[in-house]
Amino acid sequence: MGIDRSYQTQILAHDCKTPITPENLLRLTTERNPNNDRSETLTLNYSVEKSLLTSSNVWNEAMNQLNMCQVVQLVLPDEAFVITEDRRVIDINIDFSAHYSIGDVGLSPGEAENSTDGEDPVEGGTADGETLQRN
After folding, report:
1. Separation of CA 130 from chain center
2. Among 53, 65, 72, 71, which residue's Cα sits nearest to residue 91?
3. Are 30 and 11 in contact (CB under 8 A)?
């Protein structure tokens, strides 16, 4: 878009008409980066309040998806006239699962491994085969 142009943005439900509920589900931050002397790129970044996601009207439980519509309008400075509008239906797959495994760590009684960079609350200790003694 042109440098310093006025715009409006809105996130709606998947039908591109219904407002999202709850209202505080998404938080928008924007970035403008110049391309050249006459145009810039507008980047919209959304963060999701995860605790509200599954009770919102944009959550598709059957598909584990966030389904919404993003509307961006380029407007005159008084916002009374829309020059152009971009509507995009957005489907985001969400994976709530956590995958991990713990294998044979190779410690014998009396041995323990630890490391820290001083920033983590990691404490060292020794193991006797059944319990861990913290140092």
Report:
1. 41
2. 65
3. no
Other Cβ atoms closer than 10 A to 68: 24
- DSSP states along the chain: -BTT-EEEEEEEETTSSSBPSSGGGEEEEEEEEESSSSBEEEEEEEEE-HHHHTTSTTEETTTTEEEEEEEEEEE-TTSSSEEEEEEEEEEEE---------------TT-------SSS----EEE-SS-EEE-
Structure token pair of residue 66:
């966030």
Q: What is the pLDDT of residues 28-78, one digit of tens each?
A: 999 999 999 999 999 999 999 989 998 999 999 999 999 999 999 999 988
Cα 132 from Cα 65, distance rounded (Å): 43
pTM above 0.90, yes or no: no
From the number of C-beta atoms within 10 Å of its C-beta (0-12, 13-18, 19+), residue 66 rates as buried
Contact by Cβ (8 Å): 37, 72: no
What are the C-alpha distances in Å from 39 to residues 30, 31, 79?
16, 14, 20
